[in-house]
Amino acid sequence: MGGKAFTKGPHPLLTPRMPNVVYRCLLRQYREQLDAFFELVANPIEAPEKATFGDIDVLVARPKVAPFEIETVAKALNAQRTLSFPPLYSLAVPYPGIEGSFVQLDVHICKADDFEWKLFHASHGDLWNLIGTSIRSFGLTANDKGLHLRIPEIEHENRKRSMVFLTAEPDTVLGFLGLNKDTYARPIDTVEAMFEYTCSCRLFRPEPYKKVDLKSNDRKRMGQRELFRQFVEEFLPSRISMAQNIGDAAGVTREDVYEEVLERFGKREEAETRIRAWRQERDELEQKQATRRWRKEQAQEDNAYADAWINVLKSKA
């Protein structure tokens, strides 16, 4: 929430940004405290070159005591206020040494089966926003559930139903995208290094990042996410102006990726079954609409016939 969850409303709280050294100290402290309540506790790898932090994000899973109650955790951390957006809980914890100020601690409750993927997907700040813009043009979507393939025939009318789940295994996704696993597993030192890592994706190409071609969500990110704006407006143009080759996806089509993915992840039968069901639904819907149109036309003809007879009868009266 960017550290602003408690700054609005009738009783706002002051949540100043934390210097790196304070952030590291508090993160370690909160993780140790949360260890008493959950078997799995971790924080995403932070974005590079981040000097200050607006909040602290911690992912947890497998509560040690059931049923889980956030009030118990909040009391243990001396939180003065709690905002609940299950499975996300924001706690306002007193800022050490600054009276009247608070640290926003965001505790993300995960299912144990989802924990590894959510931690993976949340790491490195805007990295997945950057990678996502390119792989989206090839019909792939990486979200907090995993990597998905979108079926073109269905996507135009129902994006959600078009998505075929592929995997939520981090190493499998990195291997498929041609991204170095060791680099991903540790903090990336600089913003430029993260940009270079983005471009190392085997399905990266610069065309989707042209400002005139950006999707609405990407245009929104341009105004809200500084690293995304910097990548689009500064990094890519500088590489292109130096005639540097960027990405390995030249000549690769969405159809190529579609066929590769169906084979690689064993999803052909599932995709074809979904397409058949979709087509059947569309055919049935069109038949119903045709029937309604026919009935409407028949009703109009019957009404016209009745009106004509009424006029005839009136003329003879």
How do the strands and helices of this protein lay out in sequence?
Blueprint: E1 18-19, H1 20-34, E2 38-42, E3 52-53, E4 56-63, H2 70-76, E5 81-85, E6 88-94, E7 102-110, H3 112-122, H4 127-136, E8 140-143, E9 146-150, H5 152-155, H6 159-162, E10 163-167, H7 170-177, H8 181-184, H9 191-199, H10 216-224, H11 226-241, H12 254-264, H13 268-316
Parallel strand pairs: 4-7
Antiparallel strand pairs: 1-3, 2-4, 5-6, 6-7, 8-9, 9-10
Helix pairs in contact: 10-11
Mean pLDDT, to the nearest integer, reads: 91
How would you sum up the global shape? extended
The secondary-structure element order is: EHEEEHEEEHHEEHHEHHHHHHH
User: Roughly how much helix do the residues carry, as a percent range?
Assistant: 40-55%
Gap from first CA to last CA: 79 Å
Biggest sheet, in brief?
5 strands, mixed
Going across the biggest sheet, name each strand in turn. 2-4-7-6-5
Beta-strand residue fraction:
15-25%
Describe the structure.
The chain has 317 residues and is an alpha+beta fold. The chain has helices spanning 20-34, 70-76, 112-122, 127-136, 152-155, 159-162, 170-177, 181-184, 191-199, 216-224, 226-241, 254-264, 268-316; strands at residues 18-19, 38-42, 52-53, 56-63, 81-85, 88-94, 102-110, 140-143, 146-150, 163-167. The strands form three sheets. A five-stranded mixed beta sheet has the order 2-4-7-6-5. The chain is extended and about 100 Å long. The model has no long low-confidence stretch (mean pLDDT 91).
